[in-house]
Amino acid sequence: MPFHLLLVCVLAYVAAATSAVAQIGGPPPPNPREILQQSKEASGGNAWDALRSQHSTVTVQAAGLAGTAERWSDTTSGRSRLNFNIGPLQGASGFDGQQAWTQDEGGIARVQSDPIARELSVNAAFRDRLAFWYPDRAAALVSYQERANADGADFDVIRITPEGGRAFELWINVETKLIERLVEREAQAVRTEIYMDLRDLQGVKIPYRVRATREDPRHDEVFVVESMQFNRPLTGITFTPPPPPKPDFTFPTGRTTVSVPIDVVDGHLFVRVRIDGKGPFRMLLDNSSSNILLPDVARSLKLPAEPATPGRGDGNVGVVRAGRMDIGGVVIDKPVFATLDLKQFLRRVEGVDDIAGVLGFEVFRRMPATIDYAAGTLTLHEPVTFRFTGTSSGVPLTFRGTMPQVTARLDGIDGTFDAGTGARGSLTLAVPFVAANDLVNKYGATRTVIAGATPKGPIRGKLARAERLAIGDAKVDKPVAVLVYETATEPGTGGNAGSIGYGVLRRFTPTYDYGRKVVYLEPAAAMADPDLFERAGLWLERGPGGFVVVEIVADGPAAAAGLKAGDVVTAINGKAAGAMSLAAARASLRGEVGTKVRLRFGAAGERTLVLRDLI
Q1: Of 127, 67, 136, 132, nearest to 95 (Cα)?
Q2: Pairing of β 480-487 and β 427-429
Q3: Domain boundaries defined on the chain
Q4: Protein fold of 538-610
């Protein structure tokens, strides 16, 4: 949730654009600066000139939770700070004039290194400085976009791109001349802020109610001003990132490392933990995900969920706080979990019924962690004493929210890649990166495959084989790549090249040190293994009667054997689907070239397909 954008009173926007009408000799577009000046006059005029700071307290309703927030901003410099308390979550965020930062419920502050986060923080500072009315305060490109209609009102849309920021739009009501909407693209969605209940305060009009929406009204955020003051002294308010807190975790006495077993299944990692003395619970290990508990697990632990705001949320999302979590003797105090009902998704897509939730970023941000895919172990390191002793020189990490990212070079093309442990493939390349570099033609990619799935649907793309992926001093030759063109939740949205997943990471023994913002990719024995894609040409998921064929690759072995989307496979090589795991079923489709696999499905009886490479 973009709390640092919480209540910027009036927002404006900039971007370069040339009117097609003007180019063909028609009337010139309206002057955007004049429209902005009119909005200033309509909302207070010269009274804005005297404002130097803002302090506000608001109530917040978001994601089914309710709470409060307090915000300070310096109109002259654009610095800001926000403290929030929403349900069991407490934290802060800010901008010190140079960099944006966030502080989580554990008190740990992180500078926002992701380019999108930096651009959004520049935008917020631009608006805090009211620079859309005062061009001398911050440079921006400003243009008239269009006349638009929404909710029965006409708006002049002004597009603004602050220097170092990203384009956003201010919607100015044609009749009232007031700024009533802000539209801004975030990493994975377009956020629209709607300003309501405008009141006079110290000579200017301020919205006392703001609704932020990202198309799905179930996830709207509503902010209501409880109090606001201008020109209150900012003495004692710190805009810089706070110092680190005392650790909220302990290692066993006398030990600085703890290793626990992990299961590596179908490209995913699983680890067992104890929560409040109960368990062990099997958790999906994803170092880019927040902690998640399935609701029935949270209920079994008698963890009271923060009550949802009436009429809000989707009925299955909440937040709980446990007393402690034990990972092989490493104890984390008062861990916070989102509660999300992933049971059916995990059963359908991963074929598992015994998963209690997801564990990841909240552990990795506290301590360095080494994943040994070959040995099947996760090793946690005490952060103060940790020193990497391998041969890798380390690769710098940046973060997009909770997602770790690395800069890598794919066949001579540089890009920023997600590097979380939750992706099962090798390389999944994002739509903008694929299009900008004409990768479909470059690799001669023609076959459409499903690379994976999210709770919202499958991720489809063109199958290709790249020549070399270089991540710092680590090199992977001939990696399989999926060039995404359709996805419900696109990996790498927002300018990223895509995601690096299990197929690449298993070739190393990676050590993630989030505190020092580095990952060490120590080569493992699997480095020499060829990178393979499944060889049957179909994507299977678990259904009530067996394994459901979701999609068939045209001209692949499954298509040649007569399978089609919607078929239900009831046996593989004579073994009933109910007697084998989905992971085992998929593994049988990655056998040696020429292997014959017998599938029983529908009225067709048993058919045999012959495995072969699709790339």
Answers
A1: 127
A2: parallel
A3: 3-230, 249-381, 395-528, 538-610
A4: Pdz3 Domain (2.30.42)
Question: Is the Cα dihedral 517, 523, 526, 530 positive or negative?
Answer: positive
DSSP letter for each residue of 368-390: -EEEETTTTEEEEE-TTT----S
- The domains spanning 249-381 and 395-528 adopt the same CATH topology: yes
**395-528 is a CATH 2.40.70.10 domain:** yes
3-state secondary structure 6-29: CCCCCCCCECCCCCHHHHCCCCCC
Homologous superfamily assigned to 3-230: Lipoprotein localisation LolA/LolB/LppX (2.50.20.10)
At residue 72's C-alpha, the angle toward residues 186 and 312, to 5°, is 50
Encode pLDDT of 501-518 as tens digits. Answer: 999 999 999 999 999 999
Distance CA 61, CA 565 (A): 42
Question: Burial, 11: exposed, middle or buried (Cβ in 10 Å; 0-12, 13-18, 19+)?
Answer: buried
- Yes or no: say if 371 and 269 are a contact pair by the CB < 8 Å rule: yes
Where are the strands (E) in 440-534, listed by range?
448-454, 457-465, 468-471, 474-477, 480-487, 498-500, 508-513, 518-523
- 249-381 has CATH 2.40.30.60 classification: no
Please tell me the number of Cα atoms within 13 Å of 114 on its side-chain side: 23
List Cβ neighbours of 16 (8 Å cut-off, separation of 6 or more).
141, 143, 161
Q: What is the pLDDT of residues 67-78, one digit of tens each?
A: 999 999 999 999
Residue 491 has pLDDT above 80, yes or no: no
6: closest CA among 73, 51, 64, 65?
A: 73
Residue showing tokens 């590097």: 419
Instruction: Write the pLDDT tens digit of every residue in 280-316.
Output: 999 999 999 999 999 999 999 999 765 443 333 334 5
Q: Cα(46)–Cα(44) distance, rounded to whole angstroms? A: 6
Report angle CA 225, 227, 230 to the nearest 5 degrees. Answer: 110
Half-sphere exposure of 498 (CA within 13 A, CB side): 32
- Side chain identity, residue 390: G
Pick from 532, 513, 530: nearest CA to 521: 513
Q: Which amino acid is at 147?
A: R
User: At 188, is the secondary structure helix, strand, or coil?
Assistant: coil
Among residues 550, 450, 436, 531, the alpha carbon closest in space to that of 492 is found at 436
Amino acid (1-letter code) at residue 532 = L
- For Cα atoms 364, 370, 374, give the angle at the middle one, nearest 5 degrees: 135
Q: Which of 182, 200, 194 is closest to 45 using CA atoms?
A: 200
Decide: helix, strand or coil at residue 582. Answer: helix
